[in-house]
Design goal:
This protein is of the alpha/beta class and 377 residues long. The chain has two domains: 187 residues, 3-Layer(aba) Sandwich (Rossmann fold), CATH 3.40.50.2000; 173 residues, Glycogen Phosphorylase B (Rossmann fold). 38% of the residues lie in helices and 15% in strands. The protein has 13 helices and 15 strands. It has a seven-stranded parallel sheet, sandwiched between helices. α6 runs parallel beside α7, α6 crosses α11 and α9 crosses α12. The radius of gyration is 21 Å and the shape is globular.
């Protein structure tokens, strides 16, 4: 099959797939978020990635087209959608795949009624424009195929819709072959990696480590990340308040780092903590930590629990101290969680994820050509 073709059992379509990133998502090695990383990892090389203009070159070997600002509308969420539409008019893709923005997917489905649209949701749809209500979600399904990255998210999308509503689950994935190998003798390091914000529990991590480290000689703690996925992002009030607390506890804050540096740190650290307060829709950091062989502590949030199964300790952010004392004092438990995590991560390897993505795309194309069944109204 030639590059740029998508094939179902009865249908082959020429043309690229246009993958539309959220408006603030990066697609450069030094400035990229979870969705951009997933698209870079999972999307075929022939796809055309459409996003906001980048401050640095896009990932090497990828076709990236910047959706540059347009004069109308002058403000509002649809200004970016209009900029994307101007790119798609030139590109004329076989399929438009929108990540995490229902209002953009709906607008593009209206602007390009002859091109099938697929929407992949990475966050709670009931907190998003044009997806908050059951009637809005039903309207989306009339126009496009919808997938969610976890079963919990799927449940949120179909809430209030008829039983049997067709919404796929496309779990996030990881390329196990591309990870740094776990070290044999792991460092006595407790690691937090991700956005340093209250929703992610960064302050709970600092408070727990401040109480635990004096009782665990030889152990240290570190934070990798900032408020945004960029090294030059300015400090927020939350970060500014957290820095002296971390320094007083001896916790090193490394700021934003390239993704490979984060993975290398996870491959060395004995323990990774994901103390989220918000309802994590999936938990990519937890998956990466398991795949890198770290023993893991997570908050009992639905998306996180789907990812980790029984391969992690569970602790609410305000009870993190007890979990850390237990795990740092039990090398056998650390080794057991590490082994279970490595086995669990195998379920999310990249090959089956690519097959699921290709099946969804083929389904969207077949439906648009009259070969598939329309989603329930």
């Amino acid at each position: 099959m030639a590059a740029g073709q998508i094939r179902t059992g009865r249908l082959t379509v020429d043309g690229p797939v246009a993958v539309v990133l959220p408006p603030r998502e990066g697609f450069s090695p030094g400035a990229v978020g979870a969705i951009g990383l997933l698209v870079h990892r999972l999307s075929p090389q022939e796809d055309c990635i459409v996003g906001a203009p980048l401050a640095a070159p896009a990932f090497a070997g990828r076709r990236f087209v910047a959706a540059r600002p347009v004069p109308w509308p002058p403000l509002g969420p649809l200004r970016y959608a209009a900029a994307v539409a101007s790119v798609l008019r030139r590109l004329r893709p076989a399929l438009i795949e929108v990540h995490n923005r229902p209002e953009i997917a709906r607008h593009l489905a209206w602007r390009f009624p002859d091109i099938p649209v697929a929407l992949i949701l990475h966050n709670d749809p009931q907190a998003m424009r044009r997806a908050r209500t059951a009637s809005e979600r039903t309207a989306l399904l009339r126009r496009m195929r919808v997938a969610c990255v976890s079963d919990w998210l799927r449940g949120r999308f179909v809430e209030g819709l008829p039983t049997g509503t067709e919404v796929r689950v496309l779990p996030n994935c990881i390329d196990l072959a591309a990870l740094p190998p776990p070290v044999r003798e792991r460092e006595k390091l407790i690691l937090f990696a991700g956005r340093v914000v209250a929703d992610k529990g960064a302050d709970a991590f600092v408070a727990a480590c401040a109480r635990v480290l004096p009782h665990r000689p030889g152990w240290r703690a570190a934070i990798i990340g900032g408020d945004r996925f960029s090294a030059d992002a300015a400090d927020t009030a939350f970060l500014a308040a957290l820095r002296p607390l971390a320094a007083a506890a001896g916790i090193v804050m490394h700021g934003h780092q390239p993704h490979r540096v984060v993975l290398e740190a996870m491959a060395r650290a004995a323990i990774v903590v994901v103390p989220s307060r918000w309802q994590e829709p999936f938990g990519m950091t937890a998956l990466e930590a398991m795949a890198c062989g770290a023993a893991l502590i997570v908050s009992p949030r639905p998306g996180l629990l789907e990812v980790v199964g029984h391969a992690a300790l569970r602790a609410e952010p305000d009870l993190l101290e007890a979990a850390l004392l237990r795990l740092t004092g039990d090398p056998a438990l650390q080794a057991g969680l590490s082994g279970r995590g490595l086995a669990r991560a195998q379920l999310f390897d990249i090959a089956p994820a690519r097959r699921r993505l290709q099946a969804m795309r083929a389904d969207a194309l077949a439906r648009s050509r009259g070969f598939g069944q329309a989603a329930p109204a």
